[in-house]
UniProtKB/TrEMBL annotation:
<feature type="domain" description="Aminotransferase class V">
    <location>
        <begin position="1"/>
        <end position="91"/>
    </location>
</feature>
<keyword id="KW-0663">Pyridoxal phosphate</keyword>
<dbReference type="InterPro" id="IPR015422">
    <property type="entry name" value="PyrdxlP-dep_Trfase_small"/>
</dbReference>
<protein>
    <recommendedName>
        <fullName>Aminotransferase class V domain-containing protein</fullName>
    </recommendedName>
</protein>
<dbReference type="Pfam" id="PF00266">
    <property type="entry name" value="Aminotran_5"/>
</dbReference>
<dbReference type="InterPro" id="IPR015424">
    <property type="entry name" value="PyrdxlP-dep_Trfase"/>
</dbReference>
<dbReference type="InterPro" id="IPR000192">
    <property type="entry name" value="Aminotrans_V_dom"/>
</dbReference>
Amino acid sequence: YEHELADYLYKRLSECKSVSILGPQKDRAALCAFHSDVVHPSDLSSFLDIEGVAVRAGHHCCQPLHQALGYSHSARASLYFYNTKEDVDALIDALEDSINFFESLSGSNGNTDSDGGIDDFVPFI
């Protein structure tokens, strides 16, 4: 069941604009680390929390991987046997709302720095 949920989470996240999933889909555990080109993971985590969706933001004990991929942080959604597809849908809805909100602040692509990448620290709250 958890593998089915993991596949569903990967599929739904891959449909989100401005979201990159870290890691391959095949043989995935029931979690997904992801990065948005629009919203810093810490801000995203705060916004999702307000919507009742829990994700973790940070390095997830893999700073070298983040550096190799060119990211300072990522967000991570973890699933377990008590989660449902409706929980995944709630995550995606809240994620898309958050991305749309941050895009509306800048008129285009969110909190980017001079080279077009997401700022390392963008305090919002």
